[in-house]
Amino acid sequence: MPQPTEAPAERPLWTRPGLVVSVAVALVIGIAGIVVTVSTLDSDSRGTVSAPPSARSGSGISTPSLAAPTAVPTVAPDDVRWELLGAHPVPISDSAGPTQITATTASGFTHTPVGALIAAAQIAMRCAGPRRYWEPAIERQLVPSADRERLLAAMAAVRDESIDSAAQSDIAGFSYQSYTPDTAVIGLVLRAPSAGAPQFHVLSLTLLWRDGDWRMQAPPGGAWISVNRRTSDLTGVVEWGPQ
Predict the structure, then answer these.
(1) 3-state class of 64 per DSSP?
(2) Element (H or E) spanning 20, and its range?
(3) Which residues are paired to 231 by β-bridges?
């Protein structure tokens, strides 16, 4: 029996073919499986705390990275708790950050592989909420570039009400694709909404150590789909997520 076809407004943004931004040529825009509807934040009223010296330099400029740890974890970090961002859990670690949490952003990550991992999860999940959340996250926590401006333009073209809250993805695991104290490339694994066999999105996210914190590099062309791979094979992936 043929399966029912989703109406365009009900499909996750990262699967829609019609999102286009004109930047010299038309770029087909898809938002990867990180759509998060953030209707409320149970931590809106939380204050911020200063990042520890190990995470930030006093001048706000990146400190030398020669002494920074480089050994990536091969199991899920145990010093992590999961708190809701809207209806979706995001990781927080007392030792790795974030140490500054507001209603819209999370920052202050340690200069370690685990700090980079948590930064990837926090920033990615915040970049896909309604505009009042994704805009400050992209503007403040993505490294300035032409691709970041394309991403801002693409996101601005997506109406908040077109985001389907039922078609959301939670974090399911990670893999370190490469790591140095200045650059971390992390495969953030998200569970794709599916009624059949489990499917996953793997987002290849690049984090750069800039101005005393981990900041994300915008996806090529400003399109999340350019760093997204869908798979059912989790070989080499460390399972990670709320219990």
Answers:
(1) coil
(2) strand 19-23
(3) 200
Burial class (CB in 10 A: 0-12, 13-18, 19+), 169: buried
CA distances from 177 to 26, 157, 171, 200, 206 (A): 30, 31, 17, 17, 10
What b-and-e string marks burial along 24-60, b requiring 16 or more CB atoms within 10 Å of the CB? Answer: eeebebbbbbbbbbbeebeeeeeeeeebeeebbbeee
For the chain, what's the residue count?
Answer: 243
Per-residue pLDDT of the chain (243 residues; tens, 9 = 90+): 444 444 433 344 343 333 333 332 232 233 333 333 333 333 333 433 333 333 333 334 444 445 678 999 999 999 999 998 877 899 999 999 999 999 889 999 999 999 999 999 999 999 877 787 789 999 999 999 999 999 999 888 876 655 554 456 899 999 999 999 999 999 999 998 776 788 999 999 999 999 999 999 999 999 999 999 999 999 999 999 987
- Asked if the bond preceding 98 is cis, omega within 30° of 0, the reply is yes
Contact (Cβ atoms closer than 8 angstroms) between residue 239 and residue 172: yes
- Predicted TM-score (pTM) of the model is 0.75
Long-range contacts of 14-19 (CB under 8 A, 24+ apart): 14/201, 14/224, 14/225, 14/228, 19/154, 19/157, 19/158
The Cβ-side half-sphere exposure at 63, using a 13 Å CA radius, reads: 15
Nearest in space to 177 (alpha carbons), one of 117, 222, 231, 239:
117
- Closest-CA residue to 163 (of 10, 39, 1): 10
**Spatial distance between the Cα atoms of 196 and 199, rounded to a whole number of angstroms:** 8
